[in-house]
């Protein structure tokens, strides 16, 4: 954007001039905010009164341009101001000030690109402070390439801070003004927003009448029979599905720009420009369906269902789509399209159908297993098949003692649980078990896990043992590149030897794009038979839990099932792979890492968020425990071991084995390759309105990554973990724009949420904590399970970047920080000259009780005896979020995630919709066009 000349300002109308007129500078105006002003308004309510609290003041009320309701910039009892609460909850993203406000009826927008999303807007005081200019955070304020000399983009500061508009922009009501308004809390706001979705005119009065909600029945530990089980779970699945549907369908993208590609006029392709992808507010997967509508003036209204065929990787906002064969499209139009998202409830349908089978089909699993799952007391049962003489299997590491014990025990039991901290070889042990099961029984063994990442890991290990492995992928994922793609059913099918007849049909299909109806039918049934043969001949079938509901595997009988990361699956999800004749089940997991994500609060509270694995432990099943970890440098495992696993985690690797030579990186203590880098920069709400980012942290991460790369660490060895989607997105963009090395290097680095990293490892991990506000708390960072996962992904080195002042108010983080500080690894300053931080903590954070305080005062630096550790005799156990107990059955206790704030929920939802989406459109059968040579 060129310098803002007077003509520009006149042209663009808007803010700059208004601000200039006032000669305001952010600071100055803020000081004058409590100027006394005209007398109070009373009934009848002004049209611009806040729809939440009723406050009516032209300076502090703004209009939401999306729904035309007005909201004030006061916060009363809520964590954010009313207007901000509304924008977050409703996902509305543009506002207008009151015509009689000091700035007139301004619609704040980015001076350079016109974006109106208040969450991305910020201001830069111009030289001389006469005017300010509004720019969006990214890309406009972010690109220092701006030739504009008038604005110093390093001065950029967001318009919304601490969840309210800056008071010079929209006034904050004074206490006096707020006194007579309705006192609303966050929960009421949330309910009213829900109500507005179906009735725009609703008020708080309607809320009271609709408050009688139907009760949901809670899950139990023991069920009378499978009918009862189904009766309880089916409604929970339905609530969760309904929630998911509403969420998906509420994501409408307006003003979509379409770039058509009409090389094949019968099957037009196009690229949709979707700005929402930029903010990370929208996640799309290949295979998603979109209803694309045209409502502009250049053509009659048009709409079609299109399928997403390519999604952008990093920092691109275009989605590739394909129209159905022969669909007409107004390819002369490029603007004014709308995209609505079509929800697919496949996973939920599969849960329902598994529940039905469980209840109604006698032979769907062995009687023993069924009664065990229902919680009926069963005499221990031993399988009598002869055991192998050697337990270590080809292609995998030599098993240690506890691993051998686990394998041996599992092979003789119809139902077994394996539990182990990160890196203890759960997956290696699982692969070994599967290897033996394949030798012991005919027919394929089923290996599954709730996430695709976990399945792929096992698939890879199983392949190493020489077993014949088939990976069944959802159709939607077939085109995604992956290390184990060559094992997927569709690729094996493409390589399979075909009958001459099938080869002919395949060739015809690829040449003409389609077949006659009868040929198509023949083609499909022959392909299906071919698939069936591959599956039947396999030693192992690997798929996600929900993947076992795929039509391609229906009708197979599966005797043995092993489920990895079982603590991340909901019960109905776990049931899907079990109703195909299961007689032997192995559940592998760690209930001290993250559990399943349930988005609907009611379903979660009713018990949906606890896994089958956890319930089995409650029922008294003793898990086989693995305790030697092979992942982390011993200095990295120390804290998690003490804090989360009673100090029982032993190291199977030495410091020497985890020391990378020739890596010249300024570790403050090279013998302990970890540190906590202090960052005091502020958190900001991200463009989605529901997530957070931290710009100074991002820039710090980029510098460290660059330094690692310069030290010859490969991009594939580095992982960046951050709990917030907003930060994930910002980091990717930031590294692209500001990384000093080749852009591709940064692009190859994986940046993911903590949740997405569960079950995985990288050589070097950087954790960006993001939260850094004195007032807002640290959200779901306080979930011990999330911290546990974040701390245990690295093999060689770990760097945490965060605000110690804010984080140390949480007891768990307090001990972590003390742990770093005691070793002089809590540092500040530039990377080239890291110095121990001078920060002083309160002796003990609030929330730690007297008993613990006494301990902490003496021992805080010694996490071995920190209160979170659960020594069987320690009285401090009462507060411990984990009561593991070295001996006997770990008790399950509620984690803090049960107290998620609503903002955390919104964040988790947006991450969950990242859709490990595993549901293909299964009505379409094989669509191969490749012909084997
Ligand atoms: N007995 C063992 N000896 C040597 N390395 C092992 C052994 N068991 C596991 N590992 C290694 O430890 C790392 C973590 O193993 P993994 O099975 O992924 O652990 P988990 O699933 O419990 O997180 C892997 O690199 C794996 O090869
Ligand atoms: Mg694992
Ligand atoms: Zn609105
Ligand atoms: Zn209000
Ligand atoms: Zn902009």
UniProtKB/TrEMBL annotation:
Keywords: ATP-binding, Cytoplasm, Helicase, Hydrolase, Metal-binding, Nonsense-mediated mRNA decay, Nucleotide-binding, Zinc, Zinc-finger. It is found in: Cytoplasm. Residues 1-43, 852-921 are annotated as: Disordered. It catalyses: ATP + H2O = ADP + phosphate + H(+). Residues 31-43 have a biased composition (Acidic residues). RNA-dependent helicase required for nonsense-mediated decay (NMD) of aberrant mRNAs containing premature stop codons and modulates the expression level of normal mRNAs. Also capable of unwinding double-stranded DNA and translocating on single-stranded DNA. This is ATP-dependent RNA helicase. It comes from Malassezia brasiliensis.
